[in-house]
Give the backbone structure.
Amino acid sequence: MRTVRRGWGAVRARVGRLPADAGMATAEYAVGTVAAASLAGVLLSIFKSDWVRELVSSLIRSALGLG
């Protein structure tokens, strides 16, 4: 039982030395992930529109000399 108590004491001592903002990186990654997913959704809705499809199609036709 003494070994277990000593082990927990060492864990508590290490946890006590962690900086106050130790969890901030995870929160920043979460915000970045949500922002990237939101941007992807907006771009997907834009690129699925008929206007963009026609624009890309006309660019490809003019590049290949078909139109």
